[in-house]
Amino acid sequence: MKRLISIFTVAISLLTIAFSSPAFAAEAASGGKIFSANCAACHAGGNNVIMAKKNLKKAALAEYGMNSIAAITTQVTNGKNAMPAFGGRLSAAQIEDVATYVLAQAEKGW
């Protein structure tokens, strides 16, 4: 059942990306710059230098329930385990742009 929910969530994400507005591209581009400046040290190429299995690849995002804007936004804002919180350093809009970028890159295979 959990796998079915994950597949359903990924399908909805794909449809959302496929039929998104041009604003999505702008958010992803902005998110890419923010990602490079704040996240790439640990997550270059969608990898994770601290916990290799918890990377930003499509399968891992789905496995750990991080395959939505909301989930990634929460993680980036609040941090978790070894990941620091960026809520005090980045605006809500910047964090959402990073989440958009991460999902777009995961779809492309990084």
Write the SSE topology.
Blueprint: H1 2-18, H2 22-38, H3 40-43, H4 58-63, H5 69-78, H6 92-108
Q: Which stretches are low in confidence, meaning pLDDT under 50 for 5 or more residues running?
A: none
In what range is the share of β-strand residues?
A: under 5%
Number of contiguous helices: 6
Number of separate strands: 0
Say what oligomer this is. single chain
Computed CA radius of gyration, to the nearest angstrom: 13 Å
What is the element string, with H for helices and E for strands?
HHHHHH
Shape: globular
Amount of helix:
55-70%
User: What is the average per-residue confidence, as pLDDT, rounded to a whole number?
Assistant: 87
Please identify the structural class as seen in this structure: mainly alpha
Terminus-to-terminus distance: 28 Å
What does this structure look like?
- 20% of the residues are buried.
- This protein has helices at residues 2-18, 22-38, 40-43, 58-63, 69-78, 92-108.
- With 110 residues, the chain is an all-alpha fold.
- The mean pLDDT is 87.
- Helices cover 65% and strands 0% of the residues.
- It contains six helices and no strands.
- The longest helix is centred in the N-terminal third of the chain and has 17 residues, at 2-18.
- It starts with a helix and ends with a helix.
